[in-house]
Write the structure tokens for this entry.
Amino acid sequence: MTRRTGPETLRCAASPARLLTLAVLLALLPALSLSALAAPGARAAESTPTVGLSKKEAGKGGEITVSGKGWRGEALLMLLICGQATAERGVIGGTNSCANGTGRAVTTDKKGAFSKKLPVAEPPEPCPCVVHVATVTGRAASADAAFTVAGHPTAELPRRTGGGKLAVLAATRLEGDGSLLTWFGAPPARRLVFTVGNLGPAPVEDPVFEIGTAHGVYAPQWEERQWRGTVAPGARARIALPVELSAGAHGDYRISLRYGKKVLAEQPWGVGRPWGVTLFWVLLCLVVPAAVFRIGMAIVDRIRPRTANAPRTTGAHRGPAVRTRGPRRTTPVTRTASSAAVDDADATTAVLPWFTPDSAPSENRPRPTTKGQA
């Protein structure tokens, strides 16, 4: 019988080398798999930010040292003491529950570590409290460490509402009008009105929204606004949040609404120019030079010298009357009989110059003094 040589015979002849290679790969496969699985976990562990405290409890006016690792290199962080918060649930009321006035900022080193002293202050909300550390710029990251403010009141946390999910059901709109003060540069203010619905299985109590205002190509600046109320599962609620710009703002603005990490809606807002400010400056540029001109002319009129050729008035001949600045008073002239006679005599004398003292009327002739002429 002749044995035929086929593919199976050739595969069997080359099997020892291939089997050796396959055995080596099978031996290295578990190690490679474990290293591939462990590497992401190690990187995740290294990138998870952590916070440590020098003291777990301190009173108002004290000081603690806050340190951390695993943060992004050369990142700007914000350190705050917040109430109504835990390390597991975070800060429930947002930064409104934190002592913002005594917060501190710190920049991490190239390895993502930091150490900073933080003064102890009482937050506006009761404890349980935490030291809240969050990034200010760049990729968002935060971490909390449990802390107790000695002497600060303590209260239970609100009921967990993590199962709620809000969504905007109708278009947002801005309500309100400007006033006369806005026309003169006062801060424009409106109300952002929208309707939300709870799509989750749990109620949402006192949700905290964020209102962002953006002008031109700049990124929006966010401010927290808390709405007091409860939205039951499957229910809807009409919410109105105040929106206010800076004084003298004008142009095209964009108002954004954010809840959690999701932007729910955006609304454009065209703000008119405060023409009252422009009118005020125009009037100021006209009135001030006119007032200065009038004051200068009045000063020149008072200090200028009098001319020497001005006529002088005498008792016999009076020149034209000089008009004074005061009110002109007229004194009525009453003519008596004697003054009228004197005036008539003067007029007669002036008209009839041929009369002499001897030929004057008897009443003007001197009486004789000789005897016999009595």
